[in-house]
Amino acid sequence: MYVGIDISKHKHTFAIINGEGKVIKEAQDFDNSHDGFYLLLKALQSVGGQIKIGFESTGHYSVNLKHFLIEHGYSFMEVNPVLIKRFSESTTIRKTKTDKIDAITISKYLATVDYNPTSTKYYHIYHLKSLTRMYNKQVSDLGKAKVELRNLLDQAFPEFQKFFTDLYGKTPLLILKKAKSLKQIANLSNKQYDLYRKSSQGKFSYPRFLKLKDLAKSSIGINSKTLFFQIHLAIDKIENLQEMVLMLEEEI
């Protein structure tokens, strides 16, 4: 039995033919919903025998149906829409195109080609693809956020970037988060130094602390609270994205 399914956003259409090309079940619409999926399942169970299911590759509109079919023990084959179009043109001179006609056409096409169903590993592949796509997006956004921070520092405190080996380390980001202006960095107190020394686990020495203050005093940067407000937002974005990247890595 060959089952052709025409995929749409809100509803799908299926038709079933046998090996001789006889229509066993006329094309019928079913909703992209729980009730609709079970209407299809009931039809598949009623015909019995070996069932081959096919539909065109249509992006994410078929994702839920794919999972449903796998959960109920059915395989399926995705077909390039171009191949279906060529097959249709070679078998009929009619130009009419409807979901019901397309479902029948897909059924007939399935009967003429080797059935190469999607791997049973589809679940894992789908979720890995989804996660890695999101991971790559967050990594890209993280890169942009870091460039944004550097651009802001070019205006607010250009010497700061050269002072720290790792601009995105815990201590330099903490210093920037605590400061509301360039002048505040120039006037940091010893009490504030203790906070930065602890965050660096003692690596941020007192002489370097004094040097940072001197750099702030002689900086060509713009003493602007607005720039530092934007710096704080950029840092929040960087830290949130870093956390998301780590979570995605673990999930992958």
What is the fold's blueprint, element by element?
Layout: E1 2-7, E2 11-17, E3 23-31, H1 34-47, E4 52-56, H2 63-71, E5 77-79, H3 81-91, H4 99-110, H5 122-156, H6 159-163, H7 170-178, H8 182-186, H9 190-199, H10 206-218, H11 225-251
Parallel strand pairs: 1-4, 4-5
Antiparallel strand pairs: 1-2, 2-3
Mean pLDDT, nearest integer?
Answer: 90
Query: What composes the largest sheet?
Result: 5 strands, mixed
- Helices, by number, come to 11
Output the radius of gyration.
Answer: 31 Å
Known CATH architecture of the largest domain: Orthogonal Bundle
> Total strand count, please?
5
Percent of sequence in beta strands: 5-15%
Describe the structure.
This protein has 252 residues and is an alpha/beta fold. The protein has 2 domains: 2-118, Nucleotidyltransferase, domain 5, CATH 3.30.420; 125-251, Orthogonal Bundle (Helix Hairpins), CATH 1.10.287. Helix content is 60%, strand content 12%. It contains 11 helices and 5 strands, in the order E-E-E-H-E-H-E-H-H-H-H-H-H-H-H-H. The protein has helices spanning 34-47, 63-71, 81-91, 99-110, 122-156, 159-163, 170-178, 182-186, 190-199, 206-218, 225-251; strands spanning 2-7, 11-17, 23-31, 52-56, 77-79. A 5-stranded mixed β-sheet has the order 3-2-1-4-5. The chain is rod-shaped, with a radius of gyration of 31 Å. The two termini are 38 Å apart. The relative contact order is 0.10. The mean pLDDT is 90.
